[in-house]
């Protein structure tokens, strides 16, 4: 406007001092490093608070007992007196103990027989249940149920009653001209009764096999069938390679579980005769329990526990090493 004087005061208006939108791209400036650290610290603190129950449980119930067990493995400890350091004496006594050697033999035999049979039964039933049929959900639940109750004490007691002399199994054998008698009273047969109980609990690996079978593309079977491949060839060349990662997982898991068996073997032996007649079901954990809680040799039992951990670790390492030859992952990914 004419005649109006403009006076400069030396201070730019707020609009002039602010960065124009074009200069910052319409975004706010990033927070300062101190502010970012403060936010990260609060988030970490919240995370640790949510994890604190698990951390406390791990330290008190897992890591702490493991450290104490490692110390007791080198001591003479009977649960009542103070532990006395003896060095490697527990390990040398263990290797020279005939019953310890027997427990290793029984455990290895059980693992080599029970684990493959359980996996074969699980895979066979999974192949049947993978096909569409009426009542499929009922059959899956029925076959899975033994995995939920099979490890209970009551089932082991019932299983022992089934395999005693003149019981159901004994009478069924006589119909076929077999006069074996009660399996649980015979040192040559009681381990197979324990294996049968293990195989009966194939529901958990069966469900995992079912999940793997559902992932096999149907187009592969159709193409193989057009080329004239029969059921066995389709199973060997398509099904097994495609589910080999699932098979490896089940082999690893069931092998570890087999090394840890205790309750069924202890109960199947019977009262006054734990772990079977003539130590026929003297699995490793059963002998460990006898040494630690019946003979009050907790130091010796701790040494046995750590030897079992080392053995399972070695077997696991061998299985992982062998997977390169027979486990096929998608796009060769490990």
From TrEMBL:
What transmembrane ranges does the database entry give?
A: 45-74, 110-130, 142-162, 189-213, 234-253, 298-320
Keywords for the protein's UniProt record, in alphabetical order: Cell membrane, Membrane, Transmembrane, Transmembrane helix, Transport
Q: What InterPro entries is this protein classified in?
A: ABC_transporter_permease (IPR051393), MetI-like (IPR000515), MetI-like_sf (IPR035906)
**ABC transmembrane type-1 domain mapped to chain residues:** 104-319
Whether Oxidoreductase counts among this entry's keywords is no
Fetch the CDD domains from UniProt: TM_PBP2 (cd06261)
Biased composition, class Low complexity, residue ranges: 12-27
- Domain of life where this protein originates: Bacteria
Q: Which region ranges are annotated with the description Disordered?
A: 1-37
| CC terms in the record's Gene Ontology section | plasma membrane
Give the UniProt family note. Belongs to the binding-protein-dependent transport system permease family.
Q: What is this protein called?
A: ABC transporter permease
């Amino acid at each position: 406007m004419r005649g109006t004087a403009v006076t400069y005061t030396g201070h730019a208006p707020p609009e002039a001092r602010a960065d124009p939108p074009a200069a910052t791209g319409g975004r706010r400036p990033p927070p300062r490093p101190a502010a970012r650290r403060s936010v990260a610290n609060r988030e970490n603190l919240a995370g640790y608070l949510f994890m604190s129950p698990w951390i406390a449980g791990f330290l008190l119930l897992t890591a702490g007992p493991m450290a104490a067990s490692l110390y007791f493995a080198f001591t003479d400890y009977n649960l009542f007196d103070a532990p006395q350091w003896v060095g490697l004496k527990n390990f040398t006594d263990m290797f020279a103990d005939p019953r310890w050697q027997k427990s290793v033999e029984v455990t290895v035999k059980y693992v080599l027989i029970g684990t493959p049979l359980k996996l074969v039964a699980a895979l066979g039933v999974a192949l049947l249940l993978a096909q569409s049929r009426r009542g499929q959900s009922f059959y899956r639940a029925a076959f899975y149920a033994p995995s939920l109750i099979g490890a209970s004490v009551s089932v082991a007691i019932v299983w022992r009653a089934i395999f005693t002399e003149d019981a159901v199994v004994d009478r069924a054998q006589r119909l076929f001209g077999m006069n074996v008698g009660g399996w649980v009273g015979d040192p040559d047969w009681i381990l197979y009764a324990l294996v049968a109980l293990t195989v009966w609990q194939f529901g958990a690996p069966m469900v995992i096999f079912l999940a793997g079978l559902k992932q096999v593309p149907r187009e592969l079977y159709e193409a193989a069938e057009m080329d004239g491949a029969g059921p066995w060839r389709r199973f060997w060349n398509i099904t097994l390679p495609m589910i080999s990662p699932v098979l490896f997982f089940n082999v690893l898991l069931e092998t570890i579980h087999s090394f840890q068996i205790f309750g069924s073997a202890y109960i199947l032996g019977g009262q006054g005769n734990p772990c079977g007649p003539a130590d026929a079901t003297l699995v490793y954990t059963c002998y460990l329990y006898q040494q630690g809680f019946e003979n009050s040799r907790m130091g010796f039992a701790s040494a046995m526990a750590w030897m079992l951990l080392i053995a399972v670790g070695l077997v696991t390492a061998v299985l992982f090493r062998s997977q390169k030859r027979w486990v096929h992952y998608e796009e060769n990914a490990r």
